[in-house]
Design goal:
This protein has 215 residues and is mostly helical. It has 9 helices and 3 strands.
């Protein structure tokens, strides 16, 4: 397991990793890397999503078997702490954003699980993601996730495929910060999009299309 931004992770993720790999976690639950991509996709997405909606997805629809209440609080608290950390890091120090990728036996960086988790977050609000997915230039920001996070690579994502999945994988192995850059720019896109969506007010506090009514 590696992170590519800050040299250390402030939230201790080792106990969470161990629990996700244990027999008491549901068979279909996410691993640590997919979970990190999932949380990142939720943080940088177009809409706020309540934890009550996305927490069950982490467990694959089943219930984890916590040994004690204290363990449940610790594991769930770590998930929420990582969610908060991602959000805070992207706000205060975007260059220090540190996605959690797996490291292969020969030291290679494995991004596929993280990308799959990010796509799981996008699927929670497919329609809301359309302004980015259909944007002429910004849609390129999610192509790495689409290429590496899906098993079916026969269809070119979003009508454009500048690199094959193998080429993208090779590039990310040499420069995994590509993912971090995409995440930072996706967050910036949605902030700019939200700013454009806010109705402008007139001097008297009315929307431009409002008219004064007379009795």
């Amino acid at each position: 397991m590696v992170n590519t931004g800050s040299p250390t992770i402030e939230v201790d993720l080792e106990p969470l990793d161990a629990f996700l790999l244990s027999e008491r976690a549901p068979d279909n639950c996410m691993g640590l890397s997919d979970l990190d991509g999932f949380l990142t996709g939720i943080v940088v997405g177009p809409e706020f999503i309540l934890p009550s909606e996305w927490l069950p997805i982490i467990w694959g629809g089943d219930e984890p078997e916590f040994a004690t209440i204290e363990e449940a609080m610790s594991i769930l608290g770590t998930i929420m702490s990582r969610y908060i950390e991602i959000n805070a890091r992207l706000d205060a120090d975007p260059d220090g954003f540190d996605p959690v990728f797996w490291e292969g036996p020969e030291g290679e960086i494995i991004v596929e699980d993280w990308a799959a988790g990010f796509l799981d977050a996008m699927r929670l609000r497919t329609t809301a993601w359309e302004p980015l997915a259909l944007h002429r230039h910004a849609r390129a920001l999610i192509i790495p996730m689409l290429l590496l996070g899906t098993e079916d690579d026969d269809r070119p994502p979003l009508g454009a495929r500048p690199l094959s999945a193998a080429e993208m994988k090779e590039r990310l192995a040499n420069d995994p910060e590509i993912i971090s850059d995409c995440v930072i720019r996706i967050r910036a896109f949605w902030k700019a999009h939200a700013a454009k969506s806010v109705p402008k007010m007139t001097r008297h506090g009315r929307k431009p299309d409002q008219r004064r009514r007379h009795r």
